[in-house]
Design brief:
By secondary structure, the protein is of the alpha+beta class. It has five helices and four strands; from the N terminus they run H-E-H-E-H-E-H-E-H. It has a four-stranded mixed beta sheet, with helices on both faces. Strand 2, helix 3 and strand 3 form a beta-alpha-beta unit. The mean pLDDT is about 95.
Amino acid sequence: MCAGMTPFETFELPKEYLDAAFKALQYALEVRGVKRGTNETTKAVERGLAKLVYIALDVNPPEIVAHLPLLCKERNIPYIFVPSKEELGRQAGLEVAAASVAIVDPGDGAQLVKEIVEYLKKQGYF
């Protein structure tokens, strides 16, 4: 847990799941199944289209993404935290940082997304 840094509860994903999440993001990019940025991510969650939401932990101010965990829980959409917005942006195919992204079509990464969601359920995060 990263207590004190954010106005919402966070959790850390083990490295193998974080790596799998980034690999799933690569597959989703191949089929243009990624929404990038907090506005697009929020819309995907509100519309029930998001399959997995990524939220960067180093967003400043954290209020920019503070609504996403609650919104995801309300809509029963799995979400994970990643350490760096720069890394998230790069993994999402951007040349700039991204506070959050959402997979709406996992493409060939569907099995990876399923495994990550099963892990999150087992841990009680989702």
